[in-house]
Amino acid sequence: MTVLLISFAGFSQTLSKNARDHFNKGNEKVSEKDYTGAAGEFTVAIKLDSTFKQAYENRGVAKFYLLDYKGAIDDYTKALRIDPTDYDTYGRRGWARFYLHDYTGAVSDLDKAVQGGKDKYRYFNFRGEAKFRLKDFDGAIADFNAVIASFSGGKGQKSKAYYWRGMIEISRGRKEAGCLDLKKAERSGFEKAAEAIELYCNKSISN
After folding, report:
1. CA 98 to chain CA mean position, Å
2. What is the pLDDT confidence band of residue 13, given thresholds at 50, 70 and 90?
C-alpha cells in the first residue's frame, strides 16, 4: 500500500483551539497507526469547525488505511469543496479510486495532481498504473518515461517506473526490452521485479 502523508499545518486552518487540539491528537494517533482513533479525533475536530479542510483530508487518510476507500473519497471530496486547488488531495482521492478499481476516475484525479502536487512523480507512477489497467499502454509508458527521465523523481519512483514499463513491454511481446527494464528495477531494489524476471525473462539477458 502506498504512503499517504497527513497534513500538520492545522494552525492556519481553524480558529478553534479545541478543533486544533483534536486535530493534533488525530495526527498523533496516525503516527501510532491507530487509524480508528485518529478518525474519531478528526471527526470531533470537524464537528467543532465544519470548514477545517485538513481535518477532512487527514480523516480521509485514516479511512484509507482502514480500507474504507469510499469513506476516504467522501472526505477528500469535502476537502476539495473547501479548496478545489489542492493538488495533493486530488492525488489522494485518485489513489483511493484506484483501489476501488475506478481507474477512469483515478486518471481524472491524477491528471490534476500532476499539475502541482508536491510529489508529482509519485502521481505520474500512480496514473501510469491506472492507465495500464485501462489498457492505455501508450499513455502509461509516457507517464513512466516522465519519471525515468526526471532529475528529481527519486530512486524508488524510478525503479517502480522501470518495473511497470517492463511489464508493458513484455505484455506487448517485446520481451528483451521489457526484461532489461525489469533488471533495472531489480538493481534499484524494487522487490516485485525479481519475481517477474523469474517468470518472464530469459536468463541470458545481460545486466
Report:
1. 9
2. confident
